[in-house]
Description:
This is Formate dehydrogenase. Residues 91-129 are annotated as: Disordered. InterPro entries: Formate_DH_dsu. By secondary structure, this protein is mainly α. The chain has one domain. The chain is 50% helix and 0% strand. The protein contains 6 helices and no strands. The chain has helices spanning 3-11, 17-36, 44-55, 58-69, 77-82, 100-105.
Amino acid sequence: MSLESRRTEIEHGDEDHGDLVLRKLIRMANQIATFFLSQPEDIRAEGVATHINKFWEPRMRRHLFEHLDQGGEGLLPLVIQASTLIRRPEASVASGVGVGQDAANGAPGGKGPVAGESLSEPSIPESTA
């Protein structure tokens, strides 16, 4: 179903919880991409992917990939480009909350909360320029 037809349903009060979650994820992913559009071109996609890998729990990334697998309607091109760098979560659905196993184990390169990096620090990769 297209976003336009979903908007029509929303206007008539027929939106369910899953649609609300999807719309919020699309908006969040696009906000991240919009921020990284202000960064040097060579780090934009990596920055979007790093941020999503670092801060989105597997369940959120799973919903993002389900939407991407259906065409990714509504996502900015930078989000779609970055998707090749975003870790696709396993198929099983986990219960529970927290910073996630990725954060608990630490990110590649010795970064992340395990290495003492704050979860509130920006996720801007270093420029290769």
